[in-house]
Design brief:
- The chain is of the alpha/beta class.
- It has one domain: Rossmann fold.
- The protein contains four helices and four strands.
- It has helices at 15-27, 45-53, 82-87, 112-136, and strands at residues 3-9, 31-37, 76-79, 96-99.
- It has a four-stranded parallel beta sheet with strand order 2-1-3-4.
Length: 138
């Protein structure tokens, strides 16, 4: 049976979406990944582009409210931003709760190239953390 993982952030627009996309891409045969936000917004087009550049299509994802998942059992619930960690609802059935703090690429300032560089850096950090998570979950 696949392990279930929920990634949480505030807006469910960038970091949690990228984490969900990477886990599905790298180990979708072993994990069922989902993502949500404590205050969902809309999928960030720069996150979609950064993931597309990494060979992963998240363009059909949508921002979801964490309330859609309350009461559901997860093997792991992972917050990817500090605000979500502070306001995360209780998931008593979760076997593991973890926190992976990543910078918010949507908050990046500067030129388009500078902002894209932040999206790429955070995307790559998430990819590496997902690879480690998969290795450690054996």
């Amino acid at each position: 049976m696949k392990k279930t993982v929920l990634f949480l952030c505030t807006g469910n627009s960038c970091r949690s979406q990228m984490a969900e996309g990477f886990l599905r891409h790298f180990a979708g045969d072993r994990f069922d990944a989902a993502s949500a936000g404590t205050h969902p917004s809309v999928l960030n087009p720069d996150a979609v582009e950064a993931m597309r550049e990494a060979g992963i299509d998240i363009s059909r994802h949508r921002s979801k409210n964490v309330d859609e998942f309350v009461g559901r059992r997860f093997d792991a619930v992972i917050t990817v931003c500090d605000r979500a960690k502070e306001s995360c609802p209780i998931f008593p059935e979760a076997a593991a709760l973890d926190h992976w703090p990543f910078d918010d690429p949507a908050a990046a300032t500067g030129s388009r190239g500078e902002r894209q560089a932040v999206f790429h850096r955070v995307r790559d950090e998430i990819a590496e953390r997902i690879r480690t998570f998969i290795r450690e979950s054996r």
